[in-house]
Specification:
The protein is mostly helical and 195 residues long. The chain is 60% helix and 0% strand. The protein contains 8 helices and no strands. Helix 2 packs across helix 4.
């Protein structure tokens, strides 16, 4: 049993690694990354998720000045290229993808999740602040789950032959799980056969 537990725990490492690889690839390949969002906010073209649904988007393409230099970001026309480079440095897009992935793994292992862009605080502090409530909810959920599921499991075990109990018309709680004898003293098989 101990070997099985150790094997399952060791299997978590490649599983977590695969999840991180898939997550990293999806985030890197998805359109509308953090730089595009920041550019849209600075230009006043940012649209929240609820505004997209409600139709309050306004003009998506306001008169951005045409700059002679092409950018790899859609909304970057009219913005200083040095500013775009600074945004890339801020979000780490100035490094190659493999280096970004290794850096991300290093930060995860050392629990350095950076600063929140919305609250300007360390993410670890935000997690620690909300952790007691999450643990409390998890413990109460686990307790309620076991308080409900264990009695239900015992009840279903005591009705091991539900088909026989239904055919005899007796209640499950009245039959003995080991012998099949009902409260009248007859076995379920003799009741079915009519003897």
């Amino acid at each position: 049993m101990l070997a099985y537990i150790i094997r399952r725990l060791l299997l978590m490492i490649p599983t977590l690694f695969a999840i991180m690889v898939v997550n990293f690839v999806v985030i890197q390949a998805a359109p509308g990354g953090p730089i595009e969002q920041m550019i849209a906010q600075l230009k006043g073209d940012a649209v929240g998720a609820t505004a997209r649904i409600g139709g309050e988007s306004g003009e998506m393409t306001r008169g951005a000045q045409q700059s002679g230099e092409a950018s790899k970001y859609r909304g970057a026309r009219g913005l200083d290229p040095a500013f775009i480079k600074e945004l890339e440095r801020l979000y780490g897009f100035d490094k190659p993808p493999l280096e970004r992935f290794v850096l991300m793994l290093k930060h995860y292992v050392t629990f350095d999740f950076g600063n929140s862009f919305f609250q300007d605080r360390r993410v670890v502090d935000l997690i620690a602040e909300r952790l007691p409530v999450s643990i409390s909810l998890g413990l109460w959920t686990t307790l309620l789950t076991y308080l409900i599921s264990i009695p239900l499991g015992i009840s279903s075990w005591s009705c091991s032959s539900r088909a026989a109990a239904i055919s005899t018309g007796s209640r499950c709680a009245a039959s003995s799980p080991r012998t099949g004898a009902t409260s009248t003293g007859r076995t379920a098989s003799s009741t079915i056969s009519g003897t």
